[in-house]
């Protein structure tokens, strides 16, 4: 990574990384002497850690490099001293001298924040996080000491962690489970989200807890093989949009999808990212998406996306929603990370047209009121969950009820009895009849239907049949 730049005589390089000690080992290359500086230990030889000079002042360390040809000084946390004028001047004075003697200054920094006086002098690059092979090699080293078998699946699950974080996750798994557990590694990855403060880590829900929606379940199950590690021929779905009536299981479907894929579930709350400071909302959105990319395999749940982007077409928030919306769309289109976005919406009319254009989502599903077979399945699930005793035949009385309303019925029936609980609940299909009908009309030609259809009746019309009567022939005297 660094070798070509050193051969070309680049005098100042900036490597953005949160792993300075790993970077020290990676960037070393033959032909140059490598030294490391920090404000506590001074200058030491990078490979042997041998102390060279007790220079703790950053300006003196920068000037020290001017005396050594074909040398590289790797600085740790030099970005913290960028407000000192002497440091800025030292870099400006040093660049032409370093270039003339074949030396270079490499600044390792977790954030890119170069001052305008020196930003043109530095060439910036990113140090990528450990790849699958490096994570597996690290796991093999730990396995030798712990006498346990390596697990490639757990190594793939660690993608997105730093070397130190992965090592800690492997060690914790070995202590708690006695083997390398994918689940323990995934919980360690949840710390990335907690530390960012921008995202939420949710527990997936078993697919058995989702009643009905067989068409949606089949769509997802048929595409799980595209996410297997050794399958590069099939296109990987990137996003699914669920549109429908509130309480019909859209959010639960997102949680169940994570369970079906065996992936962690990340909730991206776009409204919570908004900030009153100019440009801060867009920055927080970019940071959140960067964390998702680093996290690796995951289901990204964006709930009620219609409310989050409702202000895109207006100037009520000075373009904040439009800026966040553009950043999100670009990320959805360009990200190479193995993620599946599950977006839910109640009011499709509030979404901008560019959000719904062809190719943005792999599929748009309409989630309607549950059919009779689905209502019976939901009753079974709720009876098992809460210990209620709603008979399956009662599903005939619940036509037009959502899954959330059936769940509330199951809970209330434990206190008030089934008949009284049933009479107390007014379903949305009655209070929002016009809006639901309009949504169904929209979905008729624009979306797939996620629900299991009601069974067809045995006969579409009742026909009475009578015994066939043989008519008399013309020769019969009765006709004469």
Question: Would you mind describing this structure in some detail?
Answer:
- This protein has 480 residues and is an alpha/beta fold.
- It has three domains: 124 residues, P-loop containing nucleotide triphosphate hydrolases (Rossmann fold, 3-Layer(aba) Sandwich), CATH 3.40.50.300; 65 residues; 258 residues, Rossmann fold (3-Layer(aba) Sandwich).
- Helix content is 42%, strand content 14%.
- It has a seven-stranded mixed β-sheet, with helices on both faces.
- α8 runs antiparallel to α12, α12 packs parallel to α14 and α15 packs across α16.
- The radius of gyration is 32 Å and the shape is elongated.
- The chain starts with a helix and ends in a 31-residue tail after the last strand.
- The relative contact order is 0.08.
- Belongs to the AAA ATPase family. Highly divergent.
- Keywords: ATP-binding, Nucleotide-binding.
- InterPro entries: AAA+_ATPase, AAA_domain_protein, ATPase_AAA_core, P-loop_NTPase.
Are there runs of 5+ residues with pLDDT below 50, and where? 456-466, 471-480
- Report the structural category: alpha/beta
Could you tell me the mean pLDDT?
A: 86
Using the coordinates shown, work out and report the CATH topology of the largest domain: Rossmann fold
Q: What radius of gyration results from the CA coordinates?
A: 32 Å
Q: Helicity range of the residues?
A: 40-55%
Number of strands: 14
The backbone outline, from C-alpha atoms, is elongated
CATH superfamily of the largest domain: P-loop containing nucleotide triphosphate hydrolases
Q: Indicate how many domains the architecture comprises.
A: 3
Measured distance between first and last alpha carbons? 113 Å
CATH class of the largest domain: Alpha Beta
Largest sheet: 7 strands, mixed
Q: How would you describe the oligomerization state of the chains in this entry?
A: single chain
Beta-strand proportion: 5-15%
């Amino acid at each position: 990574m660094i070798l070509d730049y050193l051969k070309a005589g680049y005098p100042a390089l900036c490597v953005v990384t949160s792993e300075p000690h790993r970077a020290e080992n990676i960037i070393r290359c033959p032909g140059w002497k490598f030294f490391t500086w920090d404000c506590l230990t001074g200058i030491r030889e990078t490979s042997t850690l041998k102390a060279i000079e007790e220079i703790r002042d950053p300006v003196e360390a920068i000037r020290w490099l001017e005396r050594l040809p074909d040398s590289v000084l790797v600085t740790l946390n030099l970005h913290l001293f960028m407000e000192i004028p002497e440091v800025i001047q030292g870099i400006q004075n040093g660049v032409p001298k370093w270039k003339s003697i074949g030396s270079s200054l490499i600044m390792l920094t977790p954030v890119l924040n170069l001052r305008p006086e020196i930003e043109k002098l530095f060439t910036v690059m990113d140090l990528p996080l450990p790849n699958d092979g490096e994570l597996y090699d690290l796991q093999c080293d730990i396995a030798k000491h712990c006498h346990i078998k390596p697990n490639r699946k757990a190594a793939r699950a660690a993608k997105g962690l730093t070397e130190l974080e992965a090592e800690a996750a492997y060690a914790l798994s070995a202590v708690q489970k006695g083997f390398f557990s994918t689940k323990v590694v995934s919980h360690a990855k949840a710390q990335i989200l907690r530390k960012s403060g921008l995202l939420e880590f949710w527990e997936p829900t078993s697919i058995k807890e989702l009643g009905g929606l067989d068409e949606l379940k089949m769509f997802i199950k048929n595409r799980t093989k595209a996410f297997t590690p050794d399958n590069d021929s099939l296109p990987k779905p990137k996003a699914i949009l669920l549109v429908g009536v509130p309480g019909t299981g859209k959010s639960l479907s997102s949680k169940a999808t994570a369970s079906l894929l065996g992936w962690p579930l990340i909730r991206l709350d776009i409204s919570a990212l908004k900030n009153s400071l100019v440009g801060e909302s867009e920055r927080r959105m970019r940071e959140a998406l960067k964390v998702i990319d680093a996290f690796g395999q995951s289901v990204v749940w964006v709930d009620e996306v219609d409310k989050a982007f409702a202000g895109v077409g207006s100037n009520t928030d000075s373009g904040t929603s439009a800026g966040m919306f553009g950043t999100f769309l670009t990320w959805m289109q360009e990200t190479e990370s193995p993620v599946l976005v599950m977006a839910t919406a109640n009011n499709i009319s509030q979404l901008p047209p560019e959000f719904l254009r062809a190719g943005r989502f792999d599929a748009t599903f309409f989630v309607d009121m549950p059919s009779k077979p689905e209502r019976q399945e939901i009753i079974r699930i709720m009876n098992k969950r809460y210990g209620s005793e709603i008979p399956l035949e009662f599903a005939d009385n619940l036509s037009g009820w959502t899954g959330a309303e059936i769940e509330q019925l199951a809970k209330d029936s434990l206190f008030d009895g089934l008949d009284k609980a049933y009479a107390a609940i007014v379903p949305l299909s009655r209070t929002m009849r016009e809006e639901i009908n309009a949504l169904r009309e929209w979905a008729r030609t624009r979306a797939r239907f996620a629900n299991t259809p009601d069974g067809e009746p045995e006969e579409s019309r009742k026909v009475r049949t009578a015994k066939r009567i043989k008519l008399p022939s013309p020769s019969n005297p009765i006709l004469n």
